[in-house]
Amino acid sequence: MREIAHRPEPRPVADDKKPPRKPNAKRPAPYRTGAGARARARGPRTRPPRPDLDDVVVLYGWHPVTEALRNDAREIRRLLATENAARRLAEELPDVAASPQIVRPGEIDALVGPDAVHQGLYAEAEPLEGYDLDTLPDDALVLALDQITDPHNVGAIVRTAAAFGVTAIVTTARHSPAATGVLAKSASGGLEHVPFVVVRNLGDALDRLGERGFLRIGLDSEGDETFESLPARRPALLVLGAEGKGLRVRTRSLCDVVARLDMAGAIKSLNVSNAAAIALYALTRRL
């Protein structure tokens, strides 16, 4: 008898069409990894509001806070410290008038941000009283900042200015960082020694200081003069231009002289805070 091979029954053909979605059905959220997903999981990060120039000044970090505590003219509204920082504060500044409120490090993190290096100290203080354009002394050495917006750069300039005995820093109410927070930390206590003169219009301020007899020196990598050839005298005003942009046209036109720093290397321009340090060294040697 001939053997008949077994043939499997044909399988039903699958329907190519997908079943219709329910009207209110939600698609499952895609699985995400990385910093962006972790940030979304944590929710929006809250940042402390920036104080106004005429409002509270925020100081954090060892040098900014301790210099403020040493300054009799600085009124401290609030002082927070971790246990370790308070212990060190009592050892190094036993006569400090303000008593710190002991807090955990995370409480200061919440005020200044998790990436800020506060070293266990945080203070809120009153702004310092300083000069205005008419009360600057006749032998003053002044810096003017032409729309320098980076608070780290401005803070480094303030620290350098304090080291070279600068009388004051002229800056504008707009297009400049407030003298608080990151700027104060970068200044490392320099804010207690170099006051800010905040003006509405820098060009008008340069005009008024020129009428008072200030020698207005613009700093530019393509300046016509060198600092060695300057007719240095007091009162003097050194004008620094913004990062990348340099001096604005009107600012440059109001300078009595525009000077450069001669450098032997291939790069002829520097970060504005570094250039300010070298220029102040060259200028104060002649003054």
What does this protein structure show overall?
By secondary structure, the chain is α/β, with parallel strands linked by helices. It folds into 2 domains: 69 residues, no CATH class; 139 residues, Alpha/beta knot. The protein is built from 9 helices and 11 strands. It is elongated, with a radius of gyration of 30 Å. One of its GO terms (biological process) is methylation. One of its GO terms (molecular function) is RNA binding. This is 23S rRNA (Guanosine(2251)-2'-O)-methyltransferase RlmB.
How are the SSEs ordered, and which strands pair?
Layout lengths: L34 H8 L14 E4 L1 H9 L5 E6 L1 H10 L8 E2 L2 H8 L8 E5 L15 E6 L4 H13 L4 E5 L9 H6 L8 E4 L2 H10 L3 E5 L5 E2 L9 E6 L7 H5 L3 E4 L11 H15 L1
Parallel strand pairs: 2-3, 5-6, 5-10, 6-7, 8-10, 8-11, 9-11
Antiparallel strand pairs: 1-4, 2-4
